[in-house]
Amino acid sequence: MAEAQHLDTPQYDAVVIGAGFAGLYQLHCLREMGLATTVFEAGSNVGGTWYWNRYPGARTDSPSNVYQFLFTDKLVNQWHWSERFPSQAETERYLNWVADQLDLRSDIQFNQRVDSAVWSAENACWIITTESGAQTSARFVISCMGPLSKPVLPSFKGSEAFEGIIVHTSQWPQQDIELAGRRVAVIGTGATGIQVVQTIAAEVQQLTVFQRTANYTIPMKNYPYAESEPLQVDGAQLLQRTRQTFGGFDFDIEHRLWAEVDPAERRATMERLWSEGNLALWVGSFAEQLMEAEANEAVSEFVRQKIRARINDPELEQKLVPTDHGFGTHRVPLETGYYEAYARDNVQLIDANEEPILHLTPTSIVTAHQEIPVDVIICATGFDAVTGALTNIDVRGRDNRSLADLWGKDVRTAMGMQVHGFPNLFITSSPLSPAGAFCNAPTCVQHSVEWISECIGYVQNRGSAIEATAEFEAQWVAHHDETANATLIAKTPSWYTGANIEGKSSRLIGYPGGIPAYVEACEQVKQNGYAGFSIS
Ligand code: NA7
């Protein structure tokens, strides 16, 4: 573990971990404030999620008008998105362009995975050690590692002898994997698995999909923007708008009450939102559908009918139409031709609950009923979401307390910004904030980064350390729980509740009170001189 020595003056004002959306903007803001800042990035380039998740079919489920930086005219309307829902490649190119436009690269250290961060009370700074053993000290640390960056890989008996390729979608190699004409298995049918399946079905020789849980989906309405008529937005206005809507998009939740709208009008509303081809039916519809069983069942059945209409085979219908959870209680993926992929002769869908993988041979997957020859196994099996990236680092706060130990028992934060006991550590895409799970990522990233930057500016003039008080954290956790427990999402096992990781502390990982309520709470704290935080 790092030791605090010769650190009377920290080497940097701030260390940022991660160079995706959050890290790039955080670096820009701190540099604009005149703070000596460096970024540690595990990858060899910028992009974060869009650097790592290069699997076939990866694209955003948020439209490009709101899935971009809106904070400066230097960036808004200077990049011409080619389509409504950009691909991984285009989003990665965009983030590279942002890094160049803002001249960020000189302050980013690539191929530097952070191993530990240890608070030195004596010097009021963090000692950061990277995997290479190099040590740095900084007054502030800002975690910008994204909510979904620690992959979960299943372990299979026989995998060490398997002669083909086993790959997690978020660890897809830069040089790509040749899939054309090969026998491929995909494990997992969340947002990622669905994108992979619909993309590779026609290309591979044989595709076997292992599904544990069928998901509700919405057909993505994607379309190109003509070169001559690129997407144009009013950045300042749109940025403000995204902070006034429930999910951080440019559409808001339906403000009429479910109970006060007659069934025909409810149906018309669902049809209208469905046909938007985005996530509006999920986070831009009646609030009750995520809170009351009856409303939820009505929307669930509406979506089931839409899915059934796409499937001609009763056995496939049985497997693909979700019945074990309600619409929107899991992340709702957008899809394009997903159901049609299963009508192909070269595609087989296996219910992984009835027919789990027993073991691998050097060339095949063996289940209770069959042996399936495979060349490539693609694990679209998700992430240790929201907490995993930070608990993967040995973070030691005051009195040597371990963040991994704390969150292992109880995932808590103060408004998602800090954790009591960990001075000068700020977190973006944090547990118990909307950014953790229920927000169009760039909306929440821009908000969190701005709040954190202003807070650091405030502290700098008043002391050397800021830390959330235990009382404020307890208040936020209680408010979070009250808000969360009113939803059906908190009652349904998924990665939102930590259920995909054995032994993970169970608490709804994202704050589901909506962006406006969250932004207002953060604003109140700031207006009151960072009430709830102590400065020393
Ligand atoms: P998700 O949403 O966590 O999906 C993972 C999928 O993998 C899900 O269908 C899981 O089934 C399945 N899974 C996980 N482990 C196994 C094993 N061992 N065997 C079979 N199936 C398994 O991750 P994604 O990457 O799809 O999406 C994450 C986010 O990225 C998404 O929300 C968007 O925000 C973008 P389960 O549902 O647990 O039964």
Count of alpha/pi helices: 15
End-to-end separation in angstroms reads: 25 Å
* Strand proportion: 15-25%
What is the average of the pLDDT values? 96
CATH topology of the largest domain: the name is: FAD/NAD(P)-binding domain
Q: What's the structural domain tally?
A: 2
Structural class estimated from helices and strands: alpha/beta
Structure in words:
The chain is of the alpha/beta class. The protein has two domains: 12-150 and 384-535, FAD/NAD(P)-binding domain, CATH 3.50.50.60; 159-379, no CATH class. It has 15 helices and 20 strands. Strands 1, 2, 3, 4, 5, 6, 17 and 18 form an eight-stranded mixed β-sheet that branches. It is globular and about 70 Å long. Residues 148, 154, 187-193, 210, 212-213, 331, 352, 380-382, 495, 500 line the site of ligand NA7.
How would the blueprint of this fold be written?
Blueprint: E1 12-17, H1 21-32, E2 37-40, H2 49-52, H3 88-101, E3 108-109, E4 114-120, E5 125-130, E6 135-143, E7 165-168, E8 183-187, H4 191-200, E9 206-211, E10 218-219, H5 235-242, H6 263-275, H7 280-283, H8 293-308, H9 314-320, E11 334-335, H10 338-341, E12 347-351, E13 357-360, E14 364-367, E15 371-373, E16 376-379, H11 388-391, E17 394-396, H12 403-409, E18 425-427, H13 441-460, E19 466-468, H14 470-485, H15 515-527, E20 533-535
Helix pairs in contact: 1-13, 13-15
The structure holds ligand NA7.
Main attributes?
536 residues; alpha/beta; FAD/NAD(P)-binding domain; 28% helix; 16% strand; globular; disordered N terminus; binds ligand NA7
